[in-house]
Amino acid sequence: MKVIKIDKKEWTSGIEQVKNAYRVFGPIKEENKEFSAFKELGKGVTPDLSATDTRLSPKGIIFPQSEAMFEFTTDSTSDDCNLMNVPEKDYSPRAIVGIRPYDAAAFTLVKKNFDTPEYRDNYWVDAYDACTFIGLAVSSPSILDFSTSTKSGPFDETGLDVLLCDLDDHFLAKVISEKGETFLKAAGFTNIADEKDVQKIDILKKEAEDKIQSRVFFDKIQSYSILDIYEANFWEDISFACINCGTCTYVCPTCWCFDIQDEMQGKTGQRFKNWDSCMFPLFTLHTTGHNPRGTKLQRVRQRFMHKLKYFLDKYNDGIMCVGCGRCIRFCPVNIDIRRVCDTMNSFEPAK
Amino acid sequence: MTGYIAKIKKISKQILDEGTVDMVIGFRKGTLALMNEPCFAKTSKAVDDFVWDGNCGINLANYLTSRKEKIGIIAKGCDSRNIITHIIENKIDRDQLFIIGVPCKGMLDRHLLSAKFPDEILNVSESEDAVIIKGADYEETLPRKEVLQENCSVCIHRNPVIYDELAADLVEEQADLDRFEAVRKIEALNAEDKWQYFEDLLATCIRCYACRNACPLCYCPTCFVDESKPQWVGKGQDTTDIRTFHFLRAFHDAGRCTDCGACVRACPMGIDVRMFTKKLEKDCFESFGWEAGLSLDARPPLDTFNPDDPNDFIL
């Protein structure tokens, strides 16, 4: 295992240098805004690594909220008439600097869906493959962070190429993959840390994990039959407050659902892939007018069953949640996935 | 106001036990500071979970739409005005409701407080005039009136307009307020600055529709942005589509909005969407002397024609 020591005095110039080889994305606080967001960093802009969490996860860097998949024309005089052409895409190397470990782990969950032996979502996978993930360890987890319950954690390396640990005047950068090593070289960060420094990472990791207060348990959910838990009597109570907005699904780093829309102006148009939400009635509306998930209860149940039951059953590899806590913080009516998970886990099927 | 809860519980239990209602809609304690969760109680035991404090800013009238049961509902001034609007618009029957009126002293502004205290707020306690904010290593006492939602600080209908029983004595209404100062500031901008103001306001909108869905007025079976046969509005992040949604929604609320502030409270990005509806509230007040939800007997101005209606807006 290789660890690089980065003096913070060299950080800004290193980030500037690496922009020659990568499009660099990172959290920044915009003027007049109270919160940070992941943006592509222009010349002279350094990621704000002191920022607490971003409201939206960085999933949009790989999976934009709205992305043109094809462009087309209906002009019969054009050779391309009625043909769907993929617009030019930029899959040159990009890097997300300052991504939180749970957000990087989230991409690996989403990958299970977008990159399978049968299907490959080229847009998502090409963007993902072009990306180097430079994580920032969470030294002070929020009270809503339950990432250690979900196989992630404040220093988790899943899906990361480098893990940065903040030590006041310097960073310790743990090199996790070749991609990560290449990035650090391109930034000119080559100063190998000594053994004493390396040991600090484990101490910090332990400290951060110990600070986490939120836990969820889902150990029993797999043992219940889908139909029993689907018909459980707690869904009315869980779903009552829900207003069926898309906040939880949009702030979630693992929610991957999208809608496809054609938009035309005159004779030319584009086919878009837009984030969608299982909270919206339109999500499942059939052309016949029938809606198999026509009620709020059905939609709320779907979201939690997908994350905490179907995914668990299908992949046998944990829940579809990394424990970032964003959906709890931003839900307008305080529906708390931890409470839902506990309710599901402690479910007692009727005999 | 935190002292109301004993009476709220007593009334709720009574109407459930006597069979006056099938359920009571209220709030239970949230899992994080400054948040409570709307909930229902169908038994007097479930009523024990009810809470009442300055974090009950979600408008409960939103939970009445087209319900068939007999319902007890806890209503602040604004909720009661939206209940009236719901009754007028045939979304619920007066006879179905037992309204537990709550004289309100304003709700706490969760966006303002979260921004003011970047280090996690762990606990918020309230007295008549003060709010005590506690974090892991800080504690600060603030005057209550300085941390109220903006709509609450300019509210002149704190007392419920309609109720079957009160949870406390009526409170003194605020007087001598300039309710539309913020709107006039925007009105005074030139066209270019005004456009910029709206662009900046909506720059972070993610179209989650929390504002619309938290609003008791937004009960259309299919909202115009969700129409798909034919589709009216693009569904991506095009700024024209985002603006179209907000502008049209606001117009649809003209003469109906009670300025309850649920939309702003709900917005995960902290957008002050009230600035649209507030302008229309001002126009309705100035043109028709109208304030929504004050009487079961008056039809809203955009519902009726009167030969004396002002015509000066016609160019």
Description of the structure:
The complex is a heterodimer of chains A (351) and B (315). Chain A has 351 residues and is an alpha/beta fold. Chain A contains 11 helices and 10 strands. Chain A folds into 2 domains: 2-211, no CATH class; 221-345, no CATH class. In chain A, the strands form 2 sheets. Chain A has a 7-stranded mixed β-sheet with strand order 1-8-7-6-5-2-3, sandwiched between helices. A 3-stranded antiparallel β-sheet of chain A has the order 4-10-9, with no helix packed on it. In chain A, a hairpin with a 2-residue loop joins strand 7 (162-167) and strand 8 (170-175). Chain A is globular. Chain A starts with a strand and ends in a 6-residue tail after the last helix. Chain B is α/β, with parallel strands linked by helices. The longest helix of chain B is centred in the C-terminal third of the chain and has 15 residues, at 274-288. Chain B has 2 domains: 1-106 and 155-175, no CATH class; 178-296, no CATH class. Chain B has helices at residues 5-17, 77-88, 110-116, 150-153, 181-187, 191-202, 210-213, 239-252, 262-266, 274-288, and strands at 23-29, 36-41, 71-75, 97-101, 123-126, 130-134, 139-143, 165-166. Chain B has a 5-stranded mixed β-sheet. In chain B, strand 1 (23-29) and strand 2 form a beta hairpin. The interface between A and B is large, with 43 and 42 residues.
Keywords summarizing the entry:
heterodimer; A: alpha/beta; 7-stranded mixed β-sheet; 3-stranded antiparallel β-sheet; B: 3-stranded antiparallel β-sheet; 30% helix; globular
Low-confidence stretches of chain A: none
Helicity range of chain A: 25-40%
What is the CA-atom radius of gyration of chain A, in angstroms? 22 Å
Q: Supply the helix-strand structural class of chain A.
A: alpha/beta
Cα gyration radius of chain B (Å): 20 Å
Major sheet of chain A: order of its strands? 1-8-7-6-5-2-3
Q: What's the end-to-end separation of chain A, in Å?
A: 53 Å
Number of E-type strands of chain B: 8
How many structural domains of chain B? 2
Could you list the spans of chain B in which at least 5 consecutive residues all have pLDDT below 50? none
Strand % of chain B is 5-15%
Oligomer: heterodimer
Distance between the termini of chain B: 49 Å
Strand content of chain A: 15-25%
| Count of helical stretches of chain B | 10
Summarize the largest interface: chains and residue counts. Answer: A-B, 43 and 42 residues
Biggest sheet of chain A, in brief? Answer: 7 strands, mixed
